[in-house]
Design a protein that fits this description.
The protein has 363 residues and is an alpha+beta fold. It has 13 helices and 9 strands. It has a 5-stranded mixed sheet with strand order 3-4-2-1-9, with helices on one face. A 4-stranded antiparallel sheet has the order 5-6-8-7, with helices on both faces. Strand 1 and strand 2 form a beta hairpin.
């Protein structure tokens, strides 16, 4: 074989191997959440799986659940081992996530034909749900909607949010729409980016975020939580590069933090508006905010509107109150959702969720 042929075949082999590597690493990961929990029937297992699709900051899934099958009752409380102690020192986002889980749980019971009622404890430390099978037929449309809900960090088009959506949003308690053509939009954007810059420069927050980032399919399959490449809007070849050269150590450094801030700048400006979720500034209020968040997000999904939480400013009490006072809102903003449309297909949920037995106890 001539030298020229050897070089040609070597080059072809390298290219083929690289393509196989990119295809393997870049493929969507399937964690295969195990829904089996001893002592719970299969239908309630599925209901609790759908409840677990609720959003949580850093996808930390910071809830634990105790189920009392004989009583038709479950109790939701914070998982103190999964708190975000740097960025969420007051546990505000923990209680928002609990509220989102609770509302998703209620919707899942409804979709499976159950009657369910919810009670929040006076101090907001726990949420109790009482459930009973009513024998009604299953609502597959609602279940599909819950599986479809996801965060989308891609570029959004310049298409405006239609009036009917804005009108319908008014029916969701605590939800306020801010179009990108208003002065209030600029206010929220500026507060968002100022807060993002502060977090960029805070090493403790950077270290905490890095711990929740995932840098291989194997790590995702093992931990079943955190922020994967897909959840950060990185797929295909980009995902292969991200997982090949990215690391937890690198994610704690200045370059990664600055890149993340610049991405936040583009995203904050590139949308059709924001949805603010407002509630009282108490633990109970935070839980209620999580419930309203779930309603508003699913309403957006139903109308093919993409959503990305951008609540940097809400992690500061002073910034929350500044926005509330300027907008003269009756309740304090707790979440900011970037919303808009994308070119191409609507996004998909990566479905990165822990096995149920990891956080559910049967009493």
């Amino acid at each position: 074989m001539t030298l020229k042929r050897k070089i040609m075949w070597t080059t072809i082999s390298v290219v083929v191997l690289l393509c196989l590597y990119v295809c393997y690493v870049g493929k969507p990961v399937d964690v295969g959440t195990d829904t089996e929990v001893d002592g719970i029937n299969s239908e309630v297992e599925q209901i609790l799986y759908y409840a677990g699709l609720a959003p949580s900051s850093h996808n930390a899934q910071m809830w634990e659940v105790k189920v009392y099958p004989a009583e038709g009752k479950l109790v939701i409380s914070p998982d103190n081992t999964r708190l975000l102690t740097a960025v969420d020192q007051d546990n505000r986002e923990t209680y928002i996530s609990m509220g989102a889980y609770a509302r998703s749980c209620m919707l899942a019971f409804e979709a499976y034909g159950y009657n369910a009622s919810l009670h929040i404890s006076d101090n907001g430390q726990s949420i109790t749900i009482i459930y009973a099978n009513s024998g009604m037929s299953r609502d597959e449309g609602l279940l599909t909607l819950m599986r479809r809900r996801h965060t989308d960090k891609r570029d959004y088009t310049k298409a405006s949010i239609p009036e009917f959506f804005q009108d319908g949003l008014k029916g969701i308690r605590g939800a306020v729409f801010v179009p990108d053509t208003t002065e209030v939009f600029t206010l929220v954007k500026d507060q968002t980016l100022a807060a993002a810059a502060e977090q960029r420069d805070n090493q403790d927050i950077r270290d905490e975020l890095a711990d929740w980032l995932r840098f291989s399919n194997g790590e995702v399959e093992k931990k079943k939580d955190g922020l994967t490449a897909e959840q950060n809007g990185i797929t295909g070849l980009g995902k292969a590069i991200y997982y090949t050269f990215g690391s937890h150590w690198f994610a704690k450094g200045d370059t990664f933090a600055q890149t993340g801030y610049e991405m936040a700048q583009r995203q904050a400006e590139n949308c059709a508006g924001y949805i603010l979720i407002t509630a009282n500034d108490t633990n109970v209020g935070y839980i209620e905010a999580g419930m309203h968040l779930t309603e508003a997000w699913l309403y957006a999904v139903r109308n093919d509107i993409e959503v990305q939480p951008m609540s940097f400013a809400m992690e500061s009490k002073a910034r929350r109150f500044a926005i509330q006072n300027t907008m003269k809102l009756p309740y304090t903003p707790q979440m900011v959702l970037r919303v808009g449309y994308v070119d191409g297909a609507y996004g998909a949920n990566a479905l990165i969720r822990r096995d149920l037995r990891d956080y559910i106890q049967v009493q």
